[in-house]
Amino acid sequence: MDITTFISQIENEIEELTPGSLKPETEFTSLKEWSSMHVLILIALIDTEYNVTITGADLQQCKSVNDLFNVVKSRV
Amino acid sequence: MSAYIQAISYYLPEHTLSNSELCSIFPALTENDIFKRTGIRKRHITKDGVVGSDLGYEAGMKLFSEHGIDPSTIDFLIFCTEGLDYKGPATACILQHRLGLPTSSGAIDVPFGCTGFTYGLSVAKGLIESGQANSVLLLTSDIPSTVIHPSDAELRMIFGDAGAATLITSNEEISNGVGKFSFGTDGSGADNLMVERSGTRNAADAEWFEKNKDVGGMKYGQMKMNSLEIFSFAMRVVPPMISDILTKNGLQKEDIDLFVFHQANTFLLSVLRRKLKIGEDKFFMYMEEIGNTVSASVPIALYEAIKAGKAKKGSTVLLASFGIGYSWSGTVVRL
Description:
heterodimer; A: mainly alpha; Non-ribosomal Peptide Synthetase Peptidyl Carrier Protein, Chain A; 4 helices; 0% strand; B: alpha/beta; Peroxisomal Thiolase, Chain A, domain 1; 5-stranded mixed β-sheet
């Protein structure tokens, strides 16, 4: 898996995100209008696309897109 | 001979809470946001002093009148709720008398939430198929609104109060009216969905009532939910449970006419449906007008699926529920 695909999958799934706005170093909490709903969308996306189940505890460890990418990659 | 779901009725309290009312209480929310997040437009809310057994009683009386059932033919009552009247006696005993069931009938409480219907159904099946009862009335009734703090927008969006009544009888003509069950329990998740200060452990005390005096004391306790953990729990356990139910009943996914899950919220159910690769036409959801009604959600959805013609006599329906505990269970029923 590569981070460019990962980012575009997230941008496709979350309608509030402008394509191209998300970078590997972007911190989720710095995004405007980031909410608990988006976290659930992320969990669902990762489950469907990579068959990896992310828990709330995992997400607390992930500040940036890159952190999350690395967690998913280590479990694929 | 097999246990068989003969009839279902349900009852909703009159008062409702709409998305527009929620928006006036929580100005940061919009009606569209609430609907997008939950798939719910309104929920029914019980009046102060009208408790779970009252909704269960109303549902039971409705079952008798709607389906022409004589209460004297019932020989076992299972009352399932997270809001019992007392620590003792069992609320089922009080309901036996109120509903006019024979004094020769058995009556037990099953204090269970989201998974209550399927667990209660498994007990009914056990009683009937072991020859100990012929006609079991399963009342599943919950009043989550009474344990939600008024400032908790997320929980107020999701939950609604309701009572459902299901009659399970012994049927000679059918061999698989209620199939084999898949069960699961993982108490390590207990803290992620809990009604705190509601029982003997860490009981509500003077300090608790003082802290909550502006909102009526939160006298039944307070529901706390870690929605992230509950979401990932459901994603983790539901798909293997569905496979287990199918295997235990010797069925393939294609043999199922309709899937009816605990009506948690439309977002979670839609994700589960896609993950399980179930077509929309075979997956029934009913919570837009009532919200998540805890233990009443599965029988209400089943009732509405039959009413909408999505399931009919002879249909094979997979029922699955999951939630507080953590607990999960499900089976296949033949209507």
